[in-house]
Design goal:
single chain; about 280 residues; alpha+beta; Jelly Rolls; 2 domains; five-stranded antiparallel β-sheet; globular
């Protein structure tokens, strides 16, 4: 879990890692940054916001700011991936130098979470650019400039690749289920209320055991994890836009105790609720 809440205050992070076949993140997480996740080898399941995707070698996952996500195992072999996280602030100088260009909105619009149509040549280009960023050492002005320019160039290329995929019919690889979709809609409307597996299963006339297995199989989250994710996003909104106490935020978003709220919030974001409020104030100065 620590490597996913590594240092949430950092504006840039990149890492390549080999995973064992059964590796699964300990919890979903959310960060006030963007994420690029390139599957180098093997296959994984990736939950993003309200859907899960099958991510195969050569696929690229795109995640916007504050979008819930979590990876899980798929298949019997080891996997390799590159993860790159970055904030808008990280590319501030480049964005200001080219005000006519929008480097970020395509990551937030939700139209493309998974690039699956990359040719072998395009896959190699994307991986080479990520490896280049991994290879740049140190924080000298020269190193920082090289890293930022490489990232900005990659983002411009990814915009074109997303548009090309949309012209071909949009993203594929999404896992869907009618019952899960209905339950997700119900949770979105009632997250501030007391919600239990038994209660929700009864509302949809299915057994709690079946609902639990179906949810985990479809989107790689337990029902409780999904409920907590919806609640944490709502809590983030309240913390960012109001001066309500942390206890009030916890109560309004459906958490039974402030202690439970703080624990889940810290697991998901890497910040305590109070630290998150301070972080947002710093960003908005």
């Amino acid at each position: 879990m620590q490597e996913y809440t590594y240092s949430p205050h950092l504006d840039f992070y990149i890492d390549e890692k080999i995973r064992e076949p059964d590796f699964e993140m300990g919890s979903f997480h959310i960060h006030h940054k963007y994420e690029l996740y390139y599957q180098v080898a093997g296959s994984r399941r990736y939950f993003i916001e309200d859907a899960a995707y099958v991510v195969n070698a050569g696929n690229l996952v795109l995640i916007g700011e504050n979008q819930i996500h979590k990876t899980g195992p798929l298949g019997d072999g080891p996997t390799t991936r590159v993860v790159c996280n970055f904030s808008q602030v990280y590319l501030k100088e480049i964005s200001e130098a080219f005000p006519q260009l929008d480097f970020f909105s395509f990551l937030d619009d939700g139209q493309t979470h998974l690039l699956t149509t990359l040719s072998v040549k395009q896959q190699n280009q994307v991986y080479t650019m990520l490896k280049k960023m991994l290879s740049i050492q140190g924080d000298s002005p020269r190193s920082q400039a090289a890293r930022k320019l490489q990232l900005a160039t990659l983002l411009l290329q990814l915009q074109d690749l997303c548009e090309a995929q949309r012209m071909l019919g949009g993203e594929s690889g999404r896992i869907t289920n009618r019952i899960v979709n209905q339950v997700q809609g119900y949770v979105t409307e009632h997250y501030s209320e007391k919600l239990t597996l038994t209660g929700i299963a009864g509302r949809f006339y299915i057994s709690p055991y079946y609902l639990s297995r179906l949810f985990k199989k479809t989107i790689n989250l337990s029902l409780i994890e999904y409920i907590n994710g919806v609640r944490i996003k709502a809590a983030q909104q309240l913390i960012e836009t109001t001066t309500k106490s942390i206890a009030s935020v916890a109560e309004e978003t459906g958490f039974t105790t402030s202690a439970h709220f703080r624990r889940v919030f810290k697991e998901a974001t890497g910040f305590s609720p109070q630290q998150y409020r301070q972080y947002i104030r710093h960003l908005n100065k």
